[in-house]
Amino acid sequence: MTTHHFVGIKGSGMSALAQVLHDMKFDVQGSDVEKRFFTQQALEQSGIKILPFQKENIQPGLTIIAGNAFPDTHEEIQEAMKLGLPVVRYHRFLGDFMQNFTSIAVTGAHGKTSTTGLLAHVMQGVKPTSFLIGDGTGKGEDGAEYFVFEACEYRRHFLSYFPDYTIMTNIDFDHPDYFANIEDVFSAFQEMALQVKKGIIACGDDEQLQKIQAKVPVLFYGLGEENDYQAKNVVNTPEGTTFDVFIRNTFFDTFSIPTFGTHNVLNSLAVIALCHYEELDTEIVKERLTTFQGVKRRFSEKTMGSQILIDDYAHHPTEIKATLDSARQKYPDREIVAVFQPHTFTRTQTFLQDFADSLNIADKVYLCEIFGSARENHGKLSIKDLQDKVNNSEILNEENTSILQQHEKSVILFMGAGDIQKFQEAYEKLLTV
Fold it and tell me: Is residue 96 part of a domain?
């Protein structure tokens, strides 16, 4: 049996795919840099071999799955080509793999990972479902009928996919290193829409998504009256959110979720719409919605002394606002402290004022140095440019996290897509000494 070797196995999509194949009894191994990533814990628990990058890893008989982050000049990919081994890019492999199931792609500028995780959790309660989530988790279920997966618009990678269904959560301008503007982003989603085989579930509250054209039915969900699936009578409590669902203006049922914020109501509504369209048992859907534990790095909470620390992947102004709003809803009486590490210089430059506007929702803001890649030319931009726009904000580094201790009984949100976790880890270490 062929061994599948993953070049860059610690990548979030790659590690999830490796777990899916491992569960399906494929022989799987991979390689990556030595640095520890939060994605590798699941790989280690599955007993999947992780090797340090070196061309000696590449042996005759392997099939190579290459992560999108690594160019063809990478030593392992070069060696594989020299040996004439099949080298398949991650998104191409996934595109072929999903043809074996009723596939559901979850895409959108924000909310992909949370919605994929929620949909997988709900559907598993009804039918055997395999899934691949962008937080690095994946599962290959025996005899699976459904395959739920996260599909990313970056570099138009999702155009490798021809899924049965697609959930589209929203269209927003992000990845300014690749997309020119919102029209460019829309064109990618429009192209994706024409590749869907059975149906599209799209957020009708999003004015960009209202313009989507497709060859299959497009079902809209949202809070607005004109949606096919509408959430009404939304009630927020510190325990979560309850809402009624109307289908084409007719009352359908009442649902409760243990999460907060309008974005979580919308994500749940997308899942309810897809399950209703596929005629899955509503009672099971209702019950599964209440037991969802969330996905990694999305509002992940822990209590330390009198403080609550929350780790969140928010790295775009829209996401920061949603995360801070959720914290405010769940903890209305506590001080909300934001610790934010911008991710990439291009994104920081493009959205400088928007970042400031979103962060100013917090009661207090600490900023960490910009997490940039070596590929970027950052010119004169620095974290000071953002600091100037955020009310009484301060710069935080790993050495001075003790300053956070003065915020007794507060909620501290560590937000970012880089290595923001190291600031939280430094602070936790300080608290446990």
Answer: no
Q: What is the pLDDT of residue 375?
A: 64
Query: Which strands make up the sheet holding 336-340, listed edge to edge?
Result: 300-304, 307-312, 411-415, 336-340, 364-367, 394-395
- Which domain CATH number covers 176? 3.40.1190.10
Residues 152 and 262 in one domain: yes
**Quick one: residue 136, left, alpha or beta (phi over 0 = left, psi -120 to 50 = alpha)?**
left
CA distance 423 to 181: 32
Taking the C-alpha atoms of residue 299 and residue 398, their distance in angstroms, rounded to an integer, is: 21
- Hey, what are 143's tokens? 């005899």
Residue bearing tokens 């390689």 = 31
Q: Are 121 and 139 within 8 A, CB to CB?
A: no
Q: Identify the CA nearest to 111 among candidates 237, 270, 226, 243.
A: 270
Low-confidence ranges of the chain (pLDDT < 70): 373-378
Task: Calculate the CA 396 to chain-centre distance.
Answer: 26
Q: Indicate if the alpha-carbon torsion angle 277, 142, 103, 30 is positive or negative.
A: positive
CB atoms < 10 A from the CB of 33, how many? 10
Which of 42, 68, 90 is a domain's end point?
Answer: 90
Distance CA 38, CA 61 (A): 30
pLDDT at 238: 83
Domain end, chosen from 67, 90, 113, is at 90
Type of residue numbered 289: L
CATH number at residue 332: 3.90.190.20
Domain enclosing residue 188, as ranges:
101-290
- H/E segment holding residue 203: strand 199-203
Report angle CA 361, 367, 368 to the nearest 5 degrees. 145
Give the ranges where 127-236 is alpha helix by DSSP (H).
Answer: 182-193
Instruction: Spell out the residues 6+ positions from residue 379 whose beta carbon is closer than 8 angstroms to its own.
Output: 345
Tell me which residue has tokens 């990678």. 157
